[in-house]
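For the sake of transparency, this paper describes our internal protein records without simplification. An entry from our holdings is shown next, in its original layout:
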Amino acid sequence: LAAPATSAASGCTATIPGVAQPPGSALRSLPTEQEISAGVGNPLATYGFRPFVGGLDIMPDGFRTEQDATPIRCAGVTETMLRRTYAPDEPVDAARQSYFNLDRGLPVSGADAAAVVLASDAQAQKRFDAFVQDWRSCDGQTVVKHLHRTADEDVAAAIDDVVVAGPVLTANVSTQQGHRPQAHYARAVAVRASIIVEVSLAV
């Protein structure tokens, strides 16, 4: 499954390949180190970290309500495989892997890839259509993430450049916490058969 992620910051398009063989497993749909490195144009590695494999239990669950992030409906654009996004769909299988490069000055310094297998092709397409609707409505919005244990250090995540190209949805996200430098991410979601793949690139 290929998910091109376009970054306004870098001015380039990276194609993130994976292996989607329906009906397949989420783990098999994640890109290898070689595939993701070729897709982004510079080396990325897992450094031996194993992927998370499971279901809803492996999905990040830090943002549930408006008390956690505002507007909460847009939090899924800024977070890979957010649990509240997939909870209504009751996923059959899910996997997530992170990739890194510690060198400086690279176009892409890291990536997260996640694959979610739903019960049917129709359910996956419905989930993707919901992604498209949500992301389009969030284009130009800024999500404020409230870190309750960190006073006056909310994270602001600005969303822009939402684009739909067939079975692929992309967006750019720029985050800032306090007076720290901005961080930029290219986000992508793609659908094929019963599998949704999400990618986040640190650019």
Remarks:
- The longest strand covers residues 155-165.
- The CA atoms of residues 169 and 189 lie 5 Å apart.
